[in-house]
Structure formats: C-alpha cells, structure tokens
Amino acid sequence: MKLSACYIVRDEAEELARSIASLGHAYDELIVVQTVEDAAVHAVAARYGARTHLVPWQDNFSLPRNEALRLAQGDWILFLDADESFRETGDVRARIEEVTGRHPAAEGILLPRSDIESATGEEVTRGLSLRLFRHAADILYRGRVHENVCHDDGRLLRLAEAGASLTLLHTGYARAAGARKGDRNLVLMQREIAECGEIPRYDAPMAESYFGKRMYREAADYARRALVSDVREVVPDSSIHHVLIESLRQLGAPLGEQLAAAEQAVADLPEFPELWGELGMVLCGLGRLQEAEAAFRRALALYAQPGNISHRSGYMTPAIAALLRRKLAEIAQVMEGGQKMAQAVRIFAGYIAKQEDADLRRSLTSLRASVDGIVVCHTTQAAAGEAERAAGAEVFYSPWQEDFATARNEVLARVRGRCDWLIFLDADESLSEETRGNLRRVIAQADATAEALLIPLANIDEDDGGKMLDQMLVLRAFRMRPDIQYVGKIHEELRHSDGRSLLAQRVGEEELLILHTGYSAHRRREKARRNLELLQREMAETRHPERLYHYFADIYFAMDQAEEAERYARLDIAQGRQPRTDAAKSYRTLLQIVGKQPERRAEYATLVRDAVRDYPELPEFHAELANVRAEAGAWDDAIREMETALSLLGKPQEGREISLFPPELAETARRQLASWKRRRSLPSAEERLAALAQAEGRIIMALLFLDDTCYAESRAREELPHGVRLVLDAQHGEAADVAAAADDYLPVLEVVLLCRERSLWARYADLARHLPRPLRLRAAALFEGRGAMREAAVLYETLREEPGKPADVWLHHGICAYQLGERETARRDLAAIDAAQCGERERCLLAAYRAWCGEGEETI
Predict the structure, then answer these.
(1) Which tens digit of pLDDT belongs to each residue from 186-220?
(2) Which of 136, 269, 756, 822 fits 817 for a cystine, CB–CB 3.0-4.6 Å?
(3) Could you tell me if 335 and 296 are in contact, meaning their C-beta atoms sit under 8 angstroms apart?
(4) Where are the alpha helices (DSSP H) in 197-215?
C-alpha cells in the first residue's frame, strides 16, 4: 500500500511537529495544506519533506481538506489534525497495514481517540474518529465545520475499528483552546444554518458548543432536538445526553425534569456507565438513596467489564469511578448513621462584619446553639464587641480591600479542616425563631451528593412593622470542600477552583428560613450606592462582565434609575437562563418597569411570554400571561395559563427559583378563571364585529355628513367600535385623541375617500397630522391613490423633515406637485432626491419624473 499523510494547518507549528514525529516512517508522502501563510509551519513541513500548498481560509474546513485529497497520490489517506499524535510511536506503519489487511472490505478505519487536558495530562473523554480511509475519486469531505468523510452521493463509508495500539492523543480541546475553537465552530455552523436552513446533523455540535459557552438554555434546546433527530452517530456517544442532563442541572430545572432526562439516557444507551452515574446523582438529589446506590453500582460494574464501550467512547474515567465510590460510601454513612451522624457532623458559622453590632448580635443568637464554632472577620480596627464575646466567637482583623470575596475567603482559610459544614451569614441575616432549631438536623440529613443548601431568605422591612418584601433562595450553608472559594468583589459567589457551581439541595421554608433586614427602606439607598461603586470597579477589571448584569439591574432599580435598570436587565435576559438563584429577577425588574408605561403594553405582553418560556415552573408568570391574554379577549389562552398557574401552586417547589405568587391571591385567581370561562361562552369581539360589518360602513357614511349637533345626539355611533367612534368624534370637533385610535383611522378614511367630498378630505388630512409616522405615510399614499393630491401633498410635507426615507417622501411630494401643476415645487423636490435610496418602483417613477422635468427620456 502507498500511504499519504495529510494535514490542514493554520499556525500550529509546534503541534504539527509533534504529530508528524509520532508517525515515524509510516507515510510514503506527506502533504500539508496551510490556510494562512505561516513561516514556522512552513519550516516544520520542509523539515519532514512535506509538499505544501496554500488554500486561503474561507470559513470552510472541507475546502482545504479536499484540496489535500486532490494532491494526494496514495492508496490510503491518513488525515490527522495538527493537535493529534499517536500514543505509541513505534511501528505505526506495520499496525496500519495490519488493520487494513484484516478488514479488506473496509473503506475507512476508526482510530481510538483520547482527549487530553494538556495542562494536567488528564484524560477527559475518549471516542473513535475516522482518520484512515481509502483514497478514491468519489470519497471526499462534506460540511463547513464538523465535516464528514463520505461518498460524493452522501453514502457513508464501510467502516472497521482499529485496536488500542493506534490510539491518538488529542490536545486540541484543552480548556483555553477549546473555548476558542468552540466559539469559532459555533459561528461557522450559525452561518451555514443561515444560508441553508436548519441542518439536523448540526444539532448535537450546536448543543456542545453552547454548553462550552455556558449558554445552558440553548444547549438543552439543541440537545433535545439532537436526541429526537433521525441523524445518528456512526459510533454511539453519551455526550449529548450528558449535555442535556448537566444543562438542566445548571439551569436549576426541577429534579423531576432532570430525572426524566437521566432515565431516558440509560434507556437509550444502557451500556454507558457514566449515564448510570448521572442517574444516581439525580436520584440522590431526590433523596431516593437506595435507587441511587443501585445506579452507582451498575455504573461501576459496567466500567469494570473489559469489553465495555466506555473503554472506547464516552467520558467515564478513573477519576469519575473514584467519585462514584465516594458517593457510595457517603450513602452508606447516611443510611447507617441516622441520627447519630447528626451529632458527629461539625458545623461552624462564619461572618464578616464592620460596625453592625445590633444586627450581628441578633444573628449570633439565632445560630449559637446549633454550631460548634463561630469565626468573625472584622474589616475595621474596632475591637470585637459584646455580641462576639458572649457567643464565644473567634475574631480576627483583616483590613477592608473593597472586595467581599477576599474577606470571605480569609474566613474559609481559618475554618478549613476544622469543620464539615460552614453556614456563612451576613451580619444582618438571622435564622427565624421557628426554624433555628432545625439547622443541625437539616444539614445531617442533606443528600450525600449535595455540596450546599439553598435556603429561603425573606427580605424584611423593619420600617414597615416587619413586613416581608419578597423571598428568594440563597446559598449560605455548604460542605467545606478543599477546592471551593468565593469569587467577585461584590455579590460574591461560591465556586469550585475550576469555576463549577456547587451542587445544591433546596430546603423548604418550614425547615429553615433566613430573615434579612439589610434592605429595609432606610438602608437600601445607602447600600445601593456603595454596591454600585464596587460593581463599577469590578466591571472595569473583570473578564466576565456578563456575571454582573443582573446585579447592576437590581441596584439601579433600587436607586429608581429605571433606564439603566432596564438596560442591564435586558443584557442579563439576553444570555438565557443562568445557573444561579433568583435568576428570574431581571424579568421581574423589567416587567415592573415596562408595566408602568401603558404605551408599551404590547412590549409587556412579549416580555411575559418570554418569562413563561424561560421559567415555566413559576406560577406568577403564567398568571400574568393569563391576564395579558384576557385583556386581548383570548379567553382560551387566558384560561389555560391561569389553570397552569394554579396547578403549579399545588406542587412542591424544586430547582433554584422560588415562587413569589402570594397564596392569598389563589382565590382571586380562581374567581378570575370562573369569570373568563363564562365570558368565553359569549360571542367574541371579532364575531360581533363581523355581524356588524355590512351595516357598519353605512352607519359611518351616514354619520360623516351629520352636523356636529345632530352627531352628538345620534345613538347610531354607540353601535361602532370604540376606535372608530373616536375618529368620528374628532371629525365632529369633540375632544378625542386620534392617535389613540390610530389603527381605526385608515378604515374610516377608506369610507371618506368614497364620498368624493373635498371638505371631508381636507378635514381628515388635518386629523392625520396627529398619527404616528408610518400611519401618516399610509394615509398620504391612500389620498394620493384616490387622486386627492392636495391632501396627500399636505401630509407628505409634514413627513419631509422627519427621519426615515426622505427620498421616497420627496419623490411622492413631487408627483403630487406635478399633478397639481406646481412646476417649481416639483423641480425643487427633484433636486433633493437621492435615487439610490428609492425602491425599484420609485426608480421607474423617478425616470418618468425626470422626463417630465426635461432631464431625460420617458420610460413609463
């Protein structure tokens, strides 16, 4: 056999050298296609005797790959990426000849691939890649990105698998490089989809690209599409199931939804141990420990089988196997230890404090009996107060550095190794009297897989008799893992050292409830101003400004700066649902802002629909959408949404979001629902209007010619729709806002133009001055089309000085002037017209217009 080794390379000179070196003397010819001029790559290629060729990058991977195939002269093609190299470098040629000889009918050979995190050398995933295939005129690459090798008629190649001795090590998706490649691939796929429409084979890669960018809502959507698609991988792969399950977890989706995804995964691919591990994790979150134990044992048993597919494909690694064994041990402890474990677990409390003695005293009192130790970091030189001494707290001083995460991390450093769990409260937070005795029991009974607890927090306004303002979920209690730390100068968040969020378990408010007085009215503005300064400073320094958008929205809203609050809320919403507590707050902020502006009612309706789409588990959004649809007379929609809202009220809440639907409003919602069902049985507004349609035109015609006194006394106008009546009221001199009835003006104008009454035309042209620009333009066109050139010219005159497409307005104004015999006005308009801004129809009219003015030949 003659073997052609091929590469396409951009600027990866070092990687290319390592890859070619791993081939040894396996190839008969070496071809390197460069997509950009790069001297270092050219030098490496020359050192190994490669033929080089330049194919300028055109956002299409198949083009340079197929150029390499065109240049190749071998019987077989070995096409590697520059960041791939053989793990075993000796006798590569002999092993290739052995596998091709063993499978004489095969057109392609799948090589084992091990994806390596280059920074650590750790294997992340493994799979099979088509890198070795026969050289034939009808075999080529197809696809802009994630390109496939196939026959030119789309048929797949007949494939065989190579053994482990031909394993490739792939370093191209190390975290830093992977993020860049993911962004690039996403752009290329989006471009091809824009050109060709939806491409089912891109569903899975799109899901993985969005997942890499932490855009979990989009990742979940594409993963679902991929799982129901007819497109199937040549080799079964668990990654798309993992993307869906993990995206749902990051989004804080209800555990029931996560469980359905995990159960479907093991039903589709029962031989993949990692999916059984995912199922076990979800079952732990539901407290179904015996089932979780069985799932973990199934995963480890499959992984131990020598021929299991996990040794060729998937992401099951020794590290994950070790994690599952730890989970089994934790489950055993929970199931065997029972109440004894509650006494054994060591719990500390942590604080950072400035000068909040009264608040801190109240907080310490709520925790003192339930914790084994208390550590307080003071950020001022003031000595510890009586509250700390009375509680036996360990106090240390650390100067304030305008960074909350730094101060909190110093507390973590003090308690690490001394406790199993830490509850970290703000000085103005305390456990409620009803629930403070539950802390130790709740922590002891936490799921084995839970790394933290999401605890309900109620914001209390002390200035208003302790009134509760709202509720949210907060992460305040967590296991003291060695790799967790706080990030963010303000509104700091707990993260693993690799950036992952903690796996959190939700606690019911009847178990634990935190009372927060820090945003009482007298404190809110002061804290908002302080926090805004810190946020602005962090925004100037951070590489991830998107993390701060919802905080900016919240602060500006508290400071009554609605415009800035709206801007940042929209930026936050545009990212999709985020894996944090209270992520729906940007929608709530935006709905409050837009809802106060009646002229933005249509925009408000769209926002509510989007909120329901992104947070389908929150009943208050469904209830608000029900009200919006009821306003529009869409009774079926309104009834469906309110029934959904009421059904959600009766279900246990899961995930990271907490519903703010007050239970006392449930009865009001039920009364609304009953009212809407009664009204649904009546004829709709559209049906009533249809019945009146024939009579309506005659009624309008009659009312047009009444004098103002007779019109005011006429009962016939009561039969007309409200908007039509407003237009007729304005015609007859009554105080009426024509702009408020803009949609009904044009139908009335159609009737007016049938009358051929010039005085009425002039009156309605005058009324049209108050319409928005688009409707005024349509009114002018109606007048022009019916030959009312004077009235059309009047309206075009009002439009000429406004932004938009002035050339079109000048053109039509000039046509009206031409029809009215006003030659100088027509010439003036001609001089002002920029023909390039007109449409095709206007260009033809313009040619005739120029001919009339003596500047060209007649064309129409």
Answers:
(1) 888 888 888 788 888 888 888 988 888 888 888 99
(2) 822
(3) no
(4) 203-212
